[in-house]
């Protein structure tokens, strides 16, 4: 598989967490995956910037979808671990996460992702390890 | 400061992200901080388990509050970076995150956190670096 | 297996890297593994403290041996990834790394480790992911 | 400062750890830093591949030098934390680490690095956080 079929992206966008935080996959192919979210007051922590969980969820998803777009149909991937640096406060507005595969092993895959705000400035970057597994397609 | 005043915890629990995901600080003192969340279908990804962003947000908060409980009044702390291992799928039900300080430097603080489900099994563990800063109290 | 046989520790202590940096396993059982090194001028970087590579090697080994002590005979483990915080400068003198298993899955194992100097102060802490594999015993 | 003066590289190459493991900086400018090492039996662990400490030291140095090349003269940088993925076994032969700056803040800098063997294959990748400090030049 190269580009996931549109209904696979629909499946992801329809799951609970994506709806809860208002995040959606807008693109995924062999090169990269792109997730977008509009940061609102509902995403903020006590200091007025987006909570780390929102950013972590965005980058986790961007890496996971970039990997999924490379796996054969019927395989899924789970996050083994991830590491994120928060490099600038995330204020209300659009936030885009782009994930890429750094290394694809037999079962373990290493990916990276960056989040950028409306001005193109990087607000966070991540590197993570994922595990491919056999899964029934859920479309 | 040792134990944060109750109204400080109230401030955290009232912020947008905590309300959005239904997470709340239930305890924070010099030893540890405890955050609780009831995982529901709204927190799930496409495979039926809690999204990494939910778990990351819980552990980020648990570490941050454990640090905040040790800082002088008027100081805040921001996450510089964090690394999480996901060790078991998180299913609907209660999830508790407990954070502790591993090393308190002048400006940088290192903390760890664990998340456990209803059966006490560890579902994720994290290690992160935080930066203390001067902040106006927000109570 | 619980405690690795003495000749297994001998095998590790005899390998090239351990001899090069002067590091040795002094203990490994189901609870923890302990690695010791005497930091000398040969381990220092340009600022007069031990190079991160020395500390990383110590903690990597402490985690790996703690895991190995829990695996059945004939299995080995490889580091998938590790994350280290450096919390204090490491000066010439004894440095001890202690590793523990945080989570043992079927193939992937998560461990942590701490390094402490002669005064008992923590100088670094790590969390890492390892992969078990079948290996011929090398004693 | 942009390119570090040759005598600064000489200072780094002359320090104890670089001599012990046989590693040397061959290039450092605003874009990247490059460290090289010839892996020999002295760098191996019990399974016959380079010990994680050797690879971690290489990537730590590659990130640190890439940062140093951007700092004003008289400033140094210390590793706050780093995370490494090991993506392929490192066998005897040449190993090259290249580091780059991902984000340069006022005091904290985020960098990444990759190690590649003779065939150009990536054997490890890292993301780390560093702290700039005032240091007397040591040339």
Low-confidence stretches of chain A: none
Helix content of chain A: 10-25%
Oligomer: homotetramer
The main β sheet of chain A shows up as: 6 strands, antiparallel
Strand fraction of chain A equals 35-45%
How many helices of chain A? The count is 3
- The strand count of chain A comes to 6
CATH topology of chain A: Thiol Ester Dehydrase, Chain A
Structural class of chain A: alpha+beta
The number of domains of chain A is: 1
Question: How would you characterize this protein structure?
Answer:
4 copies of one chain form a homotetramer. In chain A, strands 1-2-4-5-6-3 form a 6-stranded antiparallel beta sheet. The longest helix of chain A has 17 residues, at 52-68. The radius of gyration of chain A is 14 Å and the shape is globular. In chain A, 22% of the residues lie in helices and 42% in strands. The mean pLDDT of chain A is 93. In chain A, 56% of the residues are buried. In chain A, a hairpin with a 5-residue loop joins strand 5 (108-116) and strand 6. Chain A is an alpha+beta fold and 139 residues long. The first copy, chain A, has a single domain (6-138), classed as Hotdog Thioesterase (Thiol Ester Dehydrase, Chain A, Roll). Chain A has helices at residues 6-13, 16-21, 52-68, and strands at 23-28, 33-39, 75-86, 93-104, 108-116, 122-134. The two termini of chain A are 15 Å apart. Chains in contact: A-B, A-C, A-D, B-C, B-D, C-D. The A-B interface holds A 11-12, 15-21, 40-47, 50-54, 56-58, 60-61, 76, 78-86, 135, 138 and B 11-12, 15-21, 40-47, 50-54, 56-58, 60-61, 76, 78-86, 89, 135, 138. Strand 3 (75-86) of chain C pairs antiparallel with strand 3 of chain D.
